[in-house]
Amino acid sequence: MLRVGVNGYGTIGKRVADAVRAQPDMEVVGVAKTRPNFEAEQAVEKGFPLYAAIEDRVEQFDEADIELAGMVEELVAQSDVVVDACPSGIGEQNSELYAEYDTPALYQGGESADFVDTSFNARSNFSDANGADHVRVVSCNTTGLSRLVAPLREEYGIEKVRTTLVRRGGDPAQTGRGPINDITPNPVTLPSHHGPDVNTIFPDLDIDTLGLKVPATLMHMHSVNVTLESEPDADVVRDLLEGESRLFVIPEHFDIDGAGKLKEYAQDVGRPRGDIWENCIWGESVTMEGDDLYLFQAIHQESDVVPENVDAIRAVTNSADADESVRKTNEALGMGI
Amino acid sequence: MLRVGVNGYGTIGKRVADAVRAQPDMEVVGVAKTRPNFEAEQAVEKGFPLYAAIEDRVEQFDEADIELAGMVEELVAQSDVVVDACPSGIGEQNSELYAEYDTPALYQGGESADFVDTSFNARSNFSDANGADHVRVVSCNTTGLSRLVAPLREEYGIEKVRTTLVRRGGDPAQTGRGPINDITPNPVTLPSHHGPDVNTIFPDLDIDTLGLKVPATLMHMHSVNVTLESEPDADVVRDLLEGESRLFVIPEHFDIDGAGKLKEYAQDVGRPRGDIWENCIWGESVTMEGDDLYLFQAIHQESDVVPENVDAIRAVTNSADADESVRKTNEALGMGI
Amino acid sequence: MLRVGVNGYGTIGKRVADAVRAQPDMEVVGVAKTRPNFEAEQAVEKGFPLYAAIEDRVEQFDEADIELAGMVEELVAQSDVVVDACPSGIGEQNSELYAEYDTPALYQGGESADFVDTSFNARSNFSDANGADHVRVVSCNTTGLSRLVAPLREEYGIEKVRTTLVRRGGDPAQTGRGPINDITPNPVTLPSHHGPDVNTIFPDLDIDTLGLKVPATLMHMHSVNVTLESEPDADVVRDLLEGESRLFVIPEHFDIDGAGKLKEYAQDVGRPRGDIWENCIWGESVTMEGDDLYLFQAIHQESDVVPENVDAIRAVTNSADADESVRKTNEALGMGI
Amino acid sequence: MLRVGVNGYGTIGKRVADAVRAQPDMEVVGVAKTRPNFEAEQAVEKGFPLYAAIEDRVEQFDEADIELAGMVEELVAQSDVVVDACPSGIGEQNSELYAEYDTPALYQGGESADFVDTSFNARSNFSDANGADHVRVVSCNTTGLSRLVAPLREEYGIEKVRTTLVRRGGDPAQTGRGPINDITPNPVTLPSHHGPDVNTIFPDLDIDTLGLKVPATLMHMHSVNVTLESEPDADVVRDLLEGESRLFVIPEHFDIDGAGKLKEYAQDVGRPRGDIWENCIWGESVTMEGDDLYLFQAIHQESDVVPENVDAIRAVTNSADADESVRKTNEALGMGI
Ligand SMILES: NC(=O)c1ccc[n+]([C@@H]2O[C@H](COP(=O)([O-])OP(=O)(O)OC[C@H]3O[C@@H](n4cnc5c(N)ncnc54)[C@H](O)[C@@H]3O)[C@@H](O)[C@H]2O)c1
Ligand SMILES: NC(=O)c1ccc[n+]([C@@H]2O[C@H](COP(=O)([O-])OP(=O)(O)OC[C@H]3O[C@@H](n4cnc5c(N)ncnc54)[C@H](O)[C@@H]3O)[C@@H](O)[C@H]2O)c1
Ligand SMILES: NC(=O)c1ccc[n+]([C@@H]2O[C@H](COP(=O)([O-])OP(=O)(O)OC[C@H]3O[C@@H](n4cnc5c(N)ncnc54)[C@H](O)[C@@H]3O)[C@@H](O)[C@H]2O)c1
Ligand SMILES: NC(=O)c1ccc[n+]([C@@H]2O[C@H](COP(=O)([O-])OP(=O)(O)OC[C@H]3O[C@@H](n4cnc5c(N)ncnc54)[C@H](O)[C@@H]3O)[C@@H](O)[C@H]2O)c1
After folding, report:
1. Share of chain A above pLDDT 90, in %
2. Which A residues in the span 238-297 are in contact with D, Cβ-Cβ below 8 Å?
3. Spatial CA neighbour of A53 closest among A68, A38, A37
4. Superfamily of C2-138+305-333 according to CATH
5. Nearest C-alpha of chain B: how many angstroms from C236?
């Protein structure tokens, strides 16, 4: 059993903890948090030993009557791998702590790619993380793009990718984030940083990305163009994508017109938290114009990186190869919606 | 075992079907639907025999390869009770069908109160529905207000209720509904119809309501004023409310600032579809100024009427009294968040 | 000619500057700003001498090629009155500067009521500001409530006011403000601070307010209940309100259902920036139930305080009495939509 | 003086009427409308003779006390040109009426391109409309794309255009339109109809477009890629665009991050209704990657077609050539923000 600690029990961390617990070859030794809110209470309720991340705040947990198992250092000490899911930038600060205890660590996409040994996407470069100490699971958007690029590249070759990322302004519970009624180029300068981030997975891919923010909370939406090196029929491309375990090609008769109905569907099938770990590609949108492939895909920012974190745990500990790990993860979670 | 049919398998209907199935004394004999979308497919997937509501559309189900068990008439014929959860106004049209087969029927809050024997709220007037043929489970907002009014009235007496209902513009998957960036008095004329609807449960209650629509999808929000006939301490009122099984008084340290975090919490605790069957009352907001009680409550429009429908099934079939039914429903669903 | 300086040239400040310039008895001697954005450029374009509010930032104006007339101290020195429209809290800090130069100053509603001589609403307590050094023009919401309370109180007497303020989350250009899809009690504790703020104008008024924030940017919406000391007909109340120069009672046949159409109307009639200085009361909503008056009013947060600032300038300088000032201001601006 | 009638006095029609009136060589002989709402009242207030478009509704205008000048047929009879700005599809129905009276007519972008002599964009194909009877001024989005394509094509040659149109869900006053919290591919099938619409102006242009709808009301946003036939520096391209009279290249120091601040700026400079007739291109976003040009532009859907309608009036009446007409229109309106 791989002993996994989760540092930062928020949107990503709590999902990773549940997903790790669902694996046959892993257990959660504890989770660390800074504040005694409803998420902290739920950690305890679910039987995850709760560690305080900041000494000064221990008192606050006491006041809220939430039991602590100790300080984060103790959690790191007893973990085979730590998954760091702290807010952007904190992970890099924490890396020294993990190094001190010689505990391999995974970081999330909000961290810089510079201080880690490798960035990670299970479908694309699993083995690069074998035995690494510091691995960054790329962001929700980069994960979504990598999963799509990988099969297209293998099958047809890619001349160039051009993608507009219409990003949700904030997660559903982030009341402090806007915009309320605007569409903002973000970043304004082009191409956006998302392309270079995909290059941490596919170093030689020619990709230009443009980012925007809009007043929506459910999912990101990608308007994708890929100029291929050959000219397959759209049907054949759709079949290829349907064959990928972490791509969900939405059937036409489902009558799903956006992220709202997608999430409704995920809730109906009983997905925990209504999560959608798969890229959601509109089947009808998959189109070829000459060698230009076009499609729309929606990305559930809160959860698509979750199975990737699970796989990365196996990668850094050399406990399975890509195929075996992905199969295990998928089966344990119930991938395939 | 009570044999229950659900006619209209949408937002409300699919939840009622799941809730009925979870009861020890009930089974779902089938559900009826008009269109072969993802919800229809899920009905079949979940093992609910699927009936076509409209003859002409049978073909569409065939084309989508979704198996039908028959026509809605057959469903009604074999049901002890039918729960009608069709769009507003269709229920009244369907009532003749139910009468024809002598099958008692429940309707939802979008229907008129005029053609039914009684309107229904489990906490407030359960026994009025005993043996009735046509019963209307009141709307999400009226359910929410009734649950709150009942204990206050019993305990303190109520001089007058004044409530502003800040309503969500549409459900999360209803992409066709607005407004996008507005706050609209709705209806403009005052008081709104919500007050009279509460009077179908409490005929002699003095209540004035005002309604608005805003660009939000998660929950309704009630800004409540109740002038009581006595002047209890706010703490005591809060304790009273906490004692009600379908009221959830949000603890301060949960740090929940709106519907987004409430739904996040419901998802975290594993509620199916992230549903919140309970009224959600902010504990900190419960305040007395003289004999005026004030508080905020959020109402999950998609699910608070679900346990009420389950209770109404027992009421019309005389298979349990209020206390027993509510206890059974609560236990089967896992009420108490 | 009264020489007026405007310190803080943002949403409120730029409107006050234009409104002051439109008066026959006033001139704008300059405006002060911290950053060289499009608003700074427009100040220069419009011929308002531009002063730098912060020494360190002078360079930034140079880089953007925006000409400065000097530092804010020079502006204060040559002003008969300064209107401070800086972000909340900065006004209080600036008050020492104004005192130093013996320049009477007006502050906006975001400032505390504690450090000023009086709070101000032209309709309600104009003369309290005569000769004062520090006067606070109350916030957009408090201005809106005061204008409504004044005539009702004089005509019928008020037993109690209970109002729910459904507030816009941010102004149209504030992309950083949310929520995107939520309704948040704000503040959660009741009654909200808005009631006490109205009491700075009407000290003995019995008023309880509740506040919420929603994802809209155009206007605030008030759901108003006033328990009167008599029981006039609703028609008579509507006539009374129609007689007030800063209340606009929306005619039914205008077919205006919310803030969107209200602003459209204001743009159509040629209002500068589409501003609506008047409270907008839905005529159809004005209703009496016993001694309870109900109505909806929309408040244009960006502009309703503008004419009040103009009047306050005359009040502190004793250059007109209430009636004369209001008449002058209204005529110069074109009040009455 | 060209005598112009406007049939359909809504979002587009009322702006066209004002713009026509502002021209030295045109006058508005009347406007026609179906309903007596605030817009109808404003038409009369502004001195535009008001004609009823539908016989049966005349009574409604009487009831609202809004004076009519006659029926729409009379308006058509006395007009040299009619601008039809009725809702999509109605224009085509009206075309018979215009033919009957031999009055040349302009239609808006919501109409089909099939029944007209030519589609129109002043910058791109002015003279195609000379002497035509039925001319369609292309939609807001197509106008925006055409203005951008024209100079790039002339200067560098265009290999291919790929553009994602992130469209506003509804206009600010359209409370009935959503989505509230979603991003919807619209249309789902690719490429969208916008590309073919641009081909009505540039028949041989290779262009693929993708469309989405989001919960915003202020402006559309285009994420543009143009593969050029040469590789100019980005600076040079920006200079080229700055030289176009109906393109506004937003300076960096304006600190404008989206449509909210753009509209604020337009209001500040005193534009009627805060309209922005120009494409708004973020200067910082203009980028070359090899032969791929990228940029963001915002399009004010309510007004960018207005100057185009004015020019089209001159085109069909042969009363000026392209350069002269554009110069006149621009000067009369105050183009150049
Ligand atoms: N939310 C998303 O959409 C998303 C998607 C993919 C990747 N990410 C990345 O995942 C990371 C986490 O994001 P999130 O959305 O889960 O954030 P979050 O704010 O929801 O959760 C962060 C958690 O970390 C805790 N925390 C803060 N400081 C801490 C510290 N010093 N030590 C331990 N815990 C601490 C917070 O209490 C919180 O529970 C970021 O790098 C982010 O960029 C987020
Ligand atoms: N959604 C809410 O927030 C909410 C809350 C409380 C009560 N209600 C009430 O519940 C009722 C249903 O609302 P909903 O939101 O579930 O609607 P919905 O549109 O989500 O679902 C209605 C379902 O009925 C089906 N249907 C339509 N016509 C039918 C017919 N003739 N026969 C059988 N099925 C038919 C539709 O296919 C759909 O599946 C309405 O009265 C509504 O007012 C809704
Ligand atoms: N916006 C509203 O809806 C509204 C309504 C009524 C009252 N108010 C109140 O008006 C005041 C101003 O609000 P606003 O919305 O106009 O803010 P704003 O942010 O739009 O404008 C403030 C301006 O002050 C400038 N500024 C910042 N620090 C300064 C300093 N030290 N010296 C000089 N200028 C400085 C900023 O550059 C900006 O131009 C606040 O008290 C606010 O509470 C705002
Ligand atoms: N609003 C936009 O963003 C936009 C942008 C570019 C083009 N357009 C196009 O302009 C046209 C008009 O759109 P709009 O947004 O101005 O619509 P609108 O609904 O705002 O205005 C239409 C007007 O026509 C009137 N009308 C309806 N039926 C009529 C009839 N039979 N005869 C005369 N008048 C009638 C209505 O009362 C209304 O005043 C459509 O083709 C639309 O596609 C709209």
Report:
1. 97
2. 257-260, 282, 284-285, 287, 289, 292, 294-296
3. A68
4. NAD(P)-binding Rossmann-like Domain (3.40.50.720)
5. 16
What percent of chain B shows pLDDT beyond 70?
Answer: 100
Mean pLDDT for all residues in chain A:
97
Distance of CA C331 to the CA centre of its chain: 18
Tell me the ligand closest to C174's alpha carbon. 3
Residue % of chain B over a pLDDT of 90: 98
Q: What is the DSSP code (8-state) at residue A252?
A: G
Average pLDDT over residues D8-37: 97
Q: What is the pLDDT of residue A91?
A: 98
Domain boundaries along the sequence of chain C: 2-138+305-333, 141-299
Q: What is the pLDDT of residue B122?
A: 98
ipTM score: 0.97
May I ask the CATH architecture of the domain A141-299?
2-Layer Sandwich (3.30)
pLDDT digits (tens, 9 = 90+) for B194-242: 999 999 999 999 999 999 999 999 999 999 999 999 999 999 999 999 9
- Give the per-residue pLDDT at D256: 97
Look at A255 and B38 and tell me if their CB atoms are within 8 Å.
yes
Name the neighbours of A, counting chains with at least 3 Cβ pairs within 8 A. B, C, D
Average pLDDT, chain B: 97
| E strand or H helix at C332 | helix C322-333
The 3-state secondary structure of chain D, one letter per residue: CEEEEEECCCHHHHHHHHHHHCCCCEEEEEEEECCCCHHHHHHHHCCCCEEECCHHHHHHHHHCCCCCCEEHHHHHHHCCEEEECCCCCHHHHHHHHHHHCCCCEEECCCCCCCCCCEEECHHHHHHHHCCCCEEEECCHHHHHHHHHHHHHHHHHCEEEEEEEEEEECCCCCCCCCCCCCCCEECCCCCCCCHHHHHHCCCCCCCEEEEEEEECCCCCEEEEEEEEECCCCCHHHHHHHHHCCCCEEEECHHHCCCCHHHHHHHHHHCCCHHHCCCCEEEEHHHCEEECCEEEEEEEECCCCCCHHHHHHHHHHHCCCCCHHHHHHHHHHHHCCCC
Q: How far apart are CA C191 and CA C227, in angstroms?
A: 17
Q: Is D109 on the interface with C (CB under 8 A)?
A: no
Residue D45 near chain C (CB below 8 Å): yes
Predicted pLDDT of residue B200: 98
Residue C137's pLDDT band (cuts 50, 70, 90):
very high
What's residue A211's pLDDT?
98
**Cβ within 8 Å, pair C214-B218:** no
C-beta of B148 in contact with ligand 2 (< 6 A):
no
End-to-end CA gap in chain C:
28
**Per-residue confidence (pLDDT) for residue D195, from 0 to 100:** 97
